[in-house]
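Session log. Operator J.P. requested a structure for one protein chain; no other inputs attached. Running the standard single-chain path with token output.
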Amino acid sequence: MTFHAFEVALEIVRSLEEPLANLNRRDPDLARQLRRAASSVPLNVNEGGRRNGKDRIHLFRVAAGSADEVVACLRVAEAFGYVQAAGTARSLELCDRVLAMLWRLTH
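Structure written below.
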């Protein structure tokens, strides 16, 4: 059985290859923060999928917080001129999608 929120979360990680390459050259600290936040999304989604009760909801909320952090990192990178909006559009779209899925899983 496929857990769609996990698959979308993995796609976020895949979509960050080019933005992370640019950030590694321009702002390694921001790249590390983006990488940690992006990794946290599928890890917490998958763990939450195996849990029950409040523990499950907590992990989905942590995943949502990390997805929001990915969005913030990308927007900051755009504001600094490290990446172009066209280069982050797919990642931001996927973050919106996983955030909607996580909202439904927690409400």
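Operator note: The domain at 4-106 is CATH 1.20.1440.60 (de novo design (two linked rop proteins)).
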